[in-house]
Amino acid sequence: MSSSANDLTEKPGFNPFIDATGENHVAPDLWEPYLIRKEQIDDEIERLVNSPKPENGRRRSYFVHPLSQSPGRGLAAGITVSLDVLLPGESTSPIRHNSTQVNFCIQGSGHTFVNGQRFDFKQYDVWNHISFATYTHHNDTDDIQVRLTYSNAALLEKMHVHIVEEDPQHADIKVVTDVEDEDPRKQSPYGSFQLTKEGAWLMPYETLINPPSVESKNLHWPWEMVKENLDKLAALGKDYIGRRLYLLYNPMTGRTNGITPNFFATMTIRPPGIIDRPHRHVSAAINYYFKGSGYSIVEKKRYDWKAGDLMLSAPGWAIHNHASDEESVYELTVQDQPLNIIMESLLWQEALNKPAIILGQHSGFQTNRDNKV
Ligand SMILES: [Fe+2]
Hints:
Elements: E1 34-36, H1 38-49, E2 59-63, E3 80-86, E4 95-97, E5 101-107, E6 110-114, E7 117-121, E8 126-129, E9 135-138, E10 145-151, H2 153-158, E11 164-166, E12 193-194, E13 201-202, H3 205-208, E14 220-221, H4 223-234, E15 245-247, E16 264-270, E17 280-281, E18 285-291, E19 293-298, E20 301-306, E21 310-314, E22 320-324, E23 329-335, H5 337-342, E24 347-349, E25 357-358
Antiparallel strand pairs: 1-21, 2-3, 3-10, 4-11, 5-8, 5-10, 6-7, 6-9, 8-14, 12-13, 15-16, 16-23, 17-24, 18-21, 18-23, 19-20, 19-22, 24-25
The protein binds fe (ii) ion (FE2).
Fe (ii) ion binds next to loops.
């Protein structure tokens, strides 16, 4: 008899059950923060600059947390961050993948083609790449170009479903909206309908395989424009107790407040001498500081940072707060909050003497700022 398609089923001696009878759940091990200093990043940039040009043009290193394990080694458990360098005159080969990205130029300038759309970017500009978009990066300047790229590749790799196509030859897939298949044999005559008075529904197969499409756009946030608005927040004065930040909002992410369906990206200006209140959240936060200096207290340990440092500042659920020294701080924060909102997993404890709530399900927190300011 030929072996069955599921050879693992026949594997002798493997017990597919783990006995958990009466077992209480143990709290997860929190990751420690991890700080990569400007000097280390500069050395790595130099190493990439002096390496031979690879065939695909991508001079790239990944930032890896010491506790992360393959597959999907990231700077946080579900967040990949890479350091990407292009020399003057260089370009990358086309690529596409089912991970989404936040691109952040930290040095030099250049342009990117994504799905045929051109973005000219400068230092501290941010732009997102939607899933399965074909893109190339270009450096047509006389200076070295350095980008940080944040993506959910680590999470997809852990799920064993990160699909990457080098030099894709296929035409881009069109997003089709509001088109019904006219063949009546393919349509359930009943459609979707409410089953119970409490609100449980039934949905037929054709809706399952053709959910409503939402247009996803590649969007660009030029630093010059973001900074102008951020500086107005700085002027709000000491009476405002909220964070002086703007979220780089991609409207397709709806109520999850993202730049991609996985991540939010915020630009913060931290006035001198501001100390945040300690708090914690399930989402993991990675900060890149590009002006000023300060420190973070994470799980009672102090970490000093300065402009040019990259830090996993808030590993999920670790109690933390940040403080600026005597100069204003600018920082980009990338956090996997939208993913946690959609999963209903975003426990957030804004004040440690009050209970944690699920953000996006329970009502959220408020600052003292008048909405009309
Ligand atoms: Fe935080």
